[in-house]
Design goal:
This protein is mainly alpha-helical. It has 14 helices and no strands. The radius of gyration is 28 Å and the shape is globular. The model has no long low-confidence stretch (mean pLDDT 82).
Length: 297
């Protein structure tokens, strides 16, 4: 009995040692990965934290050497001063309504174009789709001059139409996202509707569109973030300060010789707040939208 107990204990110890050897590398690897992720998160959050802290400093504290992280005293007055120094209320209104119009238009045009590329057979469908996707590789800086000339011929320079219409009508990523999702919808649903007498328009509105809630939500959020941060195109197209969006209004804090850094940081914090709220509330849809681009097709 003693020999059997000793043998059994020896076997149990060897089995526990083997399990420890198998799990240790996994635990060490997991710890290393989490440490790297935490370090990356700190590095990514540091500029945002510095912006918030600088917005609460006085001008003297902002340029102190060595730099200080914690403001003392806290200059809460920077926030109302930044709102009073420039017409931020008008800029917020301009950005909100431009984002609303562009996002609503993109959701409609991208879903319709994605359905056409996914389900309707027409000549040169494949090459046209590839050509359409190729526009994703062309930066705006390359096309801004011909776009400016077109807007000038239409008489839309220094109007919001110059920064609404081009983005509302064309979003290659949105069309690609919609096409990929629609390709994953069973064709039998449409065939059953056709048997009931539905035409192509009815198929889109009654069958396909209700199934696109998830990708449409993801596209809407991504488009909103992109339009809210749009700086380059409005800078070229707009010259009237009453038409400025939030990014352009923030740029006015930068003078020819001096920059009001504390007010600029306060205004930037107020400008980031809507984006931050949208991302926190809808980050699940953003991640889902990125995952949907990998569907079959």
């Amino acid at each position: 009995m003693i020999q059997e107990d000793a043998s059994g204990k020896r076997v149990n110890l060897q089995a526990a040692k083997a399990r420890t050897q198998r799990t240790s590398p996994i635990k060490v690897g997991s710890i290393v990965i989490h440490l790297l992720l935490i370090l990356g998160a700190i590095l990514m959050a540091a500029p945002f934290l510095w912006m918030i802290l600088t917005s609460l400093k006085t001008a003297t504290q902002a340029f102190s050497v060595p730099p200080t992280w914690i403001p003392n005293p806290v200059a809460w007055q920077n926030y109302p001063d930044s709102l009073q120094a420039l017409p931020f209320g008008l800029a917020y209104f301009n950005s909100i309504y431009i984002c609303f119009v562009v996002v609503a238009s993109q959701l409609l045009t991208c879903s319709m174009a994605g359905y056409a590329f996914a389900r309707i057979r027409f000549p040169l469908r494949g090459p046209l789709f590839i050509l359409f996707l190729a526009t994703l590789m062309i930066p705006l800086q390359v096309t801004i001059i011909p776009l400016f000339l077109v807007m000038k011929q239409l008489g839309w320079i220094d109007t919001h139409l110059s920064i609404i219409v081009p983005y509302a009508l064309l979003n290659a990523f949105g069309v690609f996202l919609m096409r990929q999702f629609i390709k994953g919808i069973p064709i039998e649903l449409e065939e059953a509707a056709i048997m009931d007498g539905a035409n192509r328009w009815t198929l889109f509105w009654r069958v396909i569109l209700p199934l696109l809630k998830a990708p449409l939500a993801a596209l809407g959020i991504i488009s909103f973030l992109s339009q809210w941060n749009n700086f380059f195109a409005p800078l070229i197209m707009l010259s009237n300060s009453n038409l400025y969006t939030v990014p352009l209004m923030l740029n006015l804090f930068k003078g020819e010789y001096t920059t009001s850094w504390t007010l600029l940081m306060a205004g930037s914090a107020l400008a980031v707040l809507p984006i931050l709220l949208v991302y926190i509330i809808a980050q699940r849809h953003i991640i889902q939208g990125i995952q949907l681009t990998g569907l079959k097709g």
